[in-house]
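User: I'm writing a short report section on ligand binding and want a predicted complex to refer to. Could you take this sequence and adenosine-5'-diphosphate and write out the structure as tokens? A short remark afterwards would be nice.
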Amino acid sequence: MFSKILVANRGEIAVRIIRGCKRMGVRTVAVYSDADSRSLPVTLADEAYHLGGDRPAESYLNKEKIIDAARVTGCEAIHPGYGFLSENPAFARMTAEAGLIFIGPPADVIATLGDKIAAKKLAAELNIPIVAGHPAPVQSDEEAMAVIEKIGFPVLLKPAAGGGGKGMRVVMQPQELNSALKLCRQETRKAFGDDSIFIERYIEAPRHIEIQVLADHNGRVIHLGERECSIQRRYQKIIEESPSMAVDEELRRKMGAMACDLALRAGYRNAGTVEFILDRNQNFYFLEMNTRLQVEHPVTEMVTGLDLIEWQLRIAGGEKLTLKPEDIRLTGWAIEARICAEDPARNFIPSMGLITRYAEPLGDNIRVDSGVNAGSRVHVFYDSMLAKLICWGTDRETARKTMIQALNGYHIEGVSSNVDFANQVINHPAFIRGELTTDFIADHLLREDAKLPPPLEQLHCMVMATTLIYHLRVALVRNSLLPLKSQVGGAMTPEKYHDYVTKSENDIFNIRLRQMPAELEWEFQLGDKTYQVKTPPLEFFRRRLKLIINNEPNMFRLRYDGNFIEAAFCGIIRTFEIYEPREWELARYMPPPARRTRENVLESPMPGLVVEINVKSGDRVYRGQELVVIESMKMESAVASPCDGIVDSIHIKPGDTVETGMVLMGFK
Ligand code: ADP
Ligand code: ADP
Ligand code: MG
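Assistant: Sure. The structure tokens for the complex follow:
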């Protein structure tokens, strides 16, 4: 085993590798950019080496600097994590030439498999099914049209060097082809520095199923079962699980054998993932092979009990793969949610800044792989993923329930996050039924007409949580300040029950709350339902409340402001207004509070770089039209018009840096 390695990455995965190394007694060197000088991996590693610069090109993508760092600090090997240089054959080659070990496959294997066209060819030679398409980059629009005539619409344009879903475009009909080709080429050139794209038939509403493999120097290859990663937004995975409801023993055996064949034929070494899509009729097609550790590897670790980082290091160190296929057993079920700094309410724009509060969920079968803590800064330069939440259960439903409570208690302040959005996904009836496709989010969560009302039972839980907090924190304090008239001239007669009226959106709930003889126990009457509620002592802190409702523990996130309490639970985010009956009589006649918004200007929703301005002064624009494209955290986001009007003034040009709230345009 190595005695010291360099971790050429940042964030969550750097922390994961460092923790894994600590367990094995391997010392670690973290590298960091200016922006990351006080990041979690830097504090956790045995040593830290400053690469300088903020931008990836100056730091985590700078091959020379990283190899120098490994030499200077006396490391024997480099772990590239995922992203950055992990699939860069030149870097793997330079590492080897510097006399260091690259923890991953050999450079030429990365080169072959990293080219999707070459990888498809190799798969086809092994009779692995591939999506119908064209086995070479298309040079011209005419050639593209000729190819499509053979395979038929709809098609998908794909960058050969692709990754992270970047540049891919679906084309449904001939008239969309020209502009789609142009946009795909542009994005591909920008993201990968090469614009070769190819065409493949677009499989409608498939599942994404992938197989984890491990291979050693002696040509031994095994697979560790599948992961289902169908819950995606813009081809990026959000929720992953292992095993998959769509894969039975027979299919697992078939896909696993093909994944192993491909790895063997490619001369693969170390951990890798073979990705497939599965159509409605259980046909599967090879997509690509990722020659590195995947973001979602923890779900495989949770069901197999193996540590993939450990195996990566052991294989890279020359050890034999002693695991045999019959040793691999998938036990129970694991689900992972990627926790990202983004704002689902504003079209998922990245969110940046200082994390002012950060409290991870704790508990049995809950694992959090995080790259941040309170006080961390989320920067524009890097990916928006902060952490991963992984939950295990004896079966899928148990894992899902643990995940719901864990997400309910995940508290992040300072930046927006997708915690509640992830919870919405796993609470959706179609998710519960396991009806997953890569269109799940678009079909079930983003379409206005697909939105479901929250289940009454969950709303009731939220009503009880908010009303109880109001009762304990506000009403009791206020009542204690009343003249002590009940105490004058006799014993105090405590009230037997308290009535409240709680309103949220158009729902109005009449509540009767009764304190039980045991301390911290309550009975709630809500319409014709009665609930027994317990508050474990000291379980309301950091804005999180734990309540045992009818013997089931539930976590809530709450934030109160007088009669208004904002609550998040099971993916539902709502504000509740709580009144005593006599207050309610008055409150219901009050006009709703007025909102002040600036409608005649376009403000930047985030800091970033102006990439494109789609309109000019004098243009007529309509509400929701995308006017400006801003790049931030590797993502391009369009900023939409807040109103219908005419562009009066433009205060920016492409290339400008902008801050949150800066006025970009004015309207008439
Ligand atoms: P990347 O390198 O960006 O990961 P992939 O080829 O792995 O690209 O595809 C990413 C995602 O795009 C898949 O998980 C799937 O959702 C979708 N996808 C890719 N190819 C097809 C296809 N031919 N038909 C339908 N969806 C596809
Ligand atoms: P901390 O995050 O360290 O717990 P807070 O600033 O959240 O500190 O406030 C202290 C306590 O008061 C919290 O633990 C919480 O129980 C409660 N609290 C204060 N303000 C609010 C609020 N607006 N909403 C909900 N709880 C609050
Ligand atoms: Mg992929």
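A remark for your report: The chain is about 25% helix and 30% strand. Residues 629 and 638 are 4 Å apart (CA to CA).
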